[in-house]
Write a structure and sequence with these properties.
Blueprint (H helix, E strand, L loop, with lengths): L2 H17 L3 E5 L5 H7 L8 E6 L3 H8 L3 H6 L5 H15 L3 E7 L14 E8 L4 E7 L4 H20 L2
Parallel strand pairs: 1-2, 1-3
Antiparallel strand pairs: 3-4, 4-5
Length: 162
């Protein structure tokens, strides 16, 4: 993990401890990298409850309760799917915060409407709020995954500071 990502993970961990809050994650294109970043910090068991890598649509539906209609109508890489993934993880793990990431890491898989690098990052809170950010990364597969993790951690950090 890069020094910047490690520093960001430490900040998130400290903020979660300060708030006595817990977090979980539902990942697709990042393949567990977000949970890895969160748990690279010693003592992370105080705030990380768990998470899932739901790479297939079936896993999204079966474990996170993403609606089949959402996946058919809007696709796995969409704002709606990212929101449903975050809310599903929040309910499953009973945490204060849930992050989700779904996107097209590349180098293939993109279309004119959904280019390589398109990523949706969701955050659901125990207070009922769901926020989804849309990003388009311009790097290779690994750079896009790292950028998505960094953006997810920044989204959570922003929510923790309010």
């Amino acid at each position: 993990m890069s020094a910047d990502l490690l520093a960001l993970s430490r900040q998130v961990g400290a903020a979660l401890i300060e708030k006595k809050a817990t977090v979980c994650a539902a990942e697709s294109c990042t393949g567990g990298l977000l949970l890895s970043a969160l748990t690279d910090i010693a003592g992370s068991s105080a705030y990380v409850q768990g998470g899932l890598v739901t790479y297939s649509n079936e896993a999204k539906m079966n474990f996170l309760k993403v609606r089949e209609a959402t996946l058919i109508e809007q696709g796995a890489v969409s704002e709606a799917t990212a929101g449903e993934m975050a809310r599903g993880a929040l309910a499953l793990f009973a945490t204060d915060y849930a992050l989700s990431v779904t996107g097209i890491a590349g180098p293939g898989g993109g279309t004119a409407d959904k280019p390589v690098g398109l990523t949706y990052i969701g955050l659901a809170t125990g207070g009922g709020e769901t926020v989804v950010e849309r990003r388009i990364w311009r790097g290779g597969r690994i750079e896009n995954k790292n950028a998505s993790v960094s953006a997810a951690l920044r989204l959570l950090l922003g929510a923790l500071k309010t």
